[in-house]
Amino acid sequence: MHAEAVAEGVHRLCTLMVNVYFVESSGQWWLVDTGLPGYSASVRREGERRFGTPPAGILLTHGHFDHVGGLPALAEAWGAPVYAHPLELPYLTGRSSYPPPDPTVGGGAQSWLSPLFPRGPIDLDGRIRMLPEGGNVPGLVDWTWLRTAGHAPGHVSFYREGDRTLIAGDAVVTTKQESTISVLLQRERVWRPPAYYTCDWAAARRSVETIAALEPEVLATGHGHALRGAAMREGLRELADRFDTLMPDHGRYIPYPAVTDERGVVHVPPRVGLAPGQVAAAAAIGAAVVAAVWLGARAVSDTTAVGV
Q1: CATH classification of 4-254+271-304 is 3.40.50.2300, yes or no?
Q2: What are the tens digits of pLDDT across the range 197-216?
């Protein structure tokens, strides 16, 4: 597994269906997110092959399980600090699980299977640090962080104004993540945050509007290929303009969001049940999809193990 260049000093590595990014600046490099569980050896191997040294640090867009797989082991092996927004810390320090996923939104197999996904927390002990106030990114003077909440309480994106490169995490994505077929084929589309984990749709709308207003040249997201140019920007504008029609029209977090604060989850709305057809479909495909994902991760881990 080798990373591909998406912008100057920025490389993307896909861990099955989740992207991590290697960002180089002033002779150092930083890792943005750590991907799915089972891929830490691949991430470490590619980072050390490309740069020859451990990263100066690890930056998190958010702490959902598919973005922090292997993070404690990587941080320990590299001796690297980990940075996240203060509102993500409860889920990274063992204090709170994330709000439950909503399998009734999104309309695809990934959504229906989301109750099986881990909600954390993980515990990074003394390695986690808060991103500085004001948008500064430690060690990356050309970059700023932007609050892009909604998909997760403390979700952030990383932006380099000089060439308008945006690492957006899951605030927007470039494939329809709820659909297993779209994920496997990496069908390209500027799309809203993955619905099943989004716990505040009003905040998610504001984040999409913020991203569209930046008019990025490169859009590097947590799921899907990196996109660039005028067509991508038009897709962002359309997503922002039509967000109310493209977001789910009902669900656990519609119209009321999960309530979270610096302690973690405070309150979640009542659960919304799956329709009988959704239950049957999830039962039919669930075992096959889960087995494919985890066996794929295991195979990569076994063939690229480097001692993590």
Answers
A1: no
A2: 999 999 999 999 999 999 99
